[in-house]
Amino acid sequence: MTYERLATASTALAARIAGAGRVAVWATPTPATVVAVVAALRAGVPAVPLNPRTGTRELAHIVADSEPTVVLAGAGDALPPVLEALERIDVDTAGEGARPTLPEPSPESPALIVYTSGTTGPPKGAVLPRRAIAASLDALEDAWQWTGDDVLVHALPLFHVHGLILGVLGPLRRGGSVRHLGRFSTDGVARELSSGGTMLFGVPTMYHRLAEALSGPGAGELAKALAGARLLVSGSAALPVHDHERIARATGRRVIERYGMTETLMNTGVRADGEPRPGTVGAPLRDVELRLVEEDGTVLADDGTGPDAIGEIQVRGPNLFTGYLNRPDATAAAFTDDGWFRTGDMATRDADGYVRIVGRKATDLIKSGGYKIGAGEIENALLDHPGVREAAVTGEPDPDLGERIVAWVVPADPAAPPSGDELADHVAAQLSPHKRPRTVRYLEALPRNDLGKIMKRSLHA
Ligand code: MCA
Ligand code: AMP
């Protein structure tokens, strides 16, 4: 799709949705989604990107919470019943019409509402103002010398920050291009990078699969394609050093990492002209203030914090969200009194400012395939299944997904426990397929302390 076509189609759609309170976007990896999001941005109407695979319970929550009046979808998309009450507009990627200059909404006005999981309860809607998106993308321009000549290749879903903001709005802000693979494949990456692609964005699971393919048949083509890219960037979770090294050995090229969060967009990154250092996520990006804070509130010094000094990453800057939709309590809890956002990520800092993420404060947050998943939401869904009496969910290390969701279940009837597949299907249908347990373990009782709280650490023991 050319810029000309995108401008015409999105302006025509913007005229139709102008004045709507919020629009939901059925975010398939297609040009229709791009036209829909751009139209919403041009109209100044906040867009709520929806994962088309979201299950009934989670989708009902998102719709009730964000109250969109319109849903934008591709012409052939079948929408679930919960969206039927909304006005549906089929996105016409060939839409025609005049192209009046639309007024630029204020920088603080909400652009996108992106749902993200916490440790307990259903996902919260992070309200992202235009200012944050612009600031974060411009900081990446600075860090990566990202220009209109860049051709970005990726296969990230378009309902999260990584794929939508970095992966689509990023190239648009620079006047560059994007080639979305539709779905991830190592062949697709090789094909696009060897025919003009200059940058690859992906989550660690994708780089792990590239590392695997680099030792299989057809490795030569893939290695050449990766070696020819200007930048290979990984984010959304930690890329294990082992995969960093395998890719470097096979291609002579180093993957660089950046660290972000739905609420903060991008915080740190290794620069294009910086030293790639596996195991680190680089230094704070332009205009991002970052500090490490110990449990007792002590702020670690910027310099001289050795590798043993661990603290929670707190950030401040124009890249931050404005708050969680309808959740002033959660918003207040996420910030310190002086406006620092508590990320919950634990890190150390090298002498030159490179940040190393070493863990997470909450054990009840799981990162699987680059998706953030709360143990609590899965436990609640499992408890809804008639065959489950008690349930606890943990994450276990997984070479492909980073972490794998494990469900510990006390069956209602020990003689006839629900199968692992049945429970996985149940969670996929209620929440999302990527939240389904990959392993189910059956117990007679969950280990609890004197207060009745489940002791998750003893589960693994
Ligand atoms: C399997 N499937 C099922 C079931 N079992 N569906 C329903 N019920 C079941 N019981 C389906 C899946 O939906 C999927 O369908 C297929 O089987 C395989 O699924 P799975 O094994 O789960 O995943 P995968 O296809 O191997 O996906 C790996 C992936 C994916 C491509 C790496 O995890 C991914 O796209 N991750 C990106 C996450 C991301 O963008 N995170 C950014 C958020 P089908 O094959 O048809 O699809 S973080 C962020 O934005 C911050 C700001 C940051 O820092 O970036
Ligand atoms: P999300 O809420 O899905 O936006 O995920 C944000 C979280 O992903 C952060 O709080 C980090 O825990 C994690 N994350 C993102 N990028 C990286 C990275 N490069 N290395 C390690 N963790 C990361």
Q: Strand fraction band?
A: 25-35%
At CATH level 2, the architecture of the domain at 3-105 is: 3-Layer(aba) Sandwich
The global form is: globular
- Please outline the major beta sheet: 7 strands, mixed
Helix content estimate: 25-40%
Going by helix content, strand content and strand pairing, the class is alpha/beta
Number of discrete helical segments: 13
CATH class assignment of the domain at 3-105: Alpha Beta
Structure, explained:
The protein has 461 residues and is of the alpha/beta class. Among the domains are: 3-105, Rossmann fold (3-Layer(aba) Sandwich), CATH 3.40.50; 365-460, ANL, C-terminal domain (GMP Synthetase, Chain A, domain 3). Helix content is 30%, strand content 26%. It has 13 helices and 23 strands. Strands 8-7-9-10-11-12-13 form a seven-stranded mixed sheet, sandwiched between helices. Strands 2-1-3-4 form a four-stranded parallel sheet, sandwiched between helices. Strands 14-15-17-18 form a four-stranded antiparallel sheet, with no helix packed on it. Strand 11 (256-261) and strand 12 (265-269) form a beta hairpin. Helix 4 (130-144) crosses helix 5 (161-174) and helix 6 (186-193) crosses helix 8 (219-228). It is globular. The mean pLDDT is 96. The structure holds methylmalonyl-coenzyme A (MCA) and adenosine monophosphate.
Q: Which features does this protein show?
A:
binds adenosine monophosphate; 13 helices; 461 residues; Rossmann fold; single chain; binds methylmalonyl-coenzyme A; 4-stranded parallel sheet; GMP Synthetase, Chain A, domain 3; alpha/beta; 30% helix
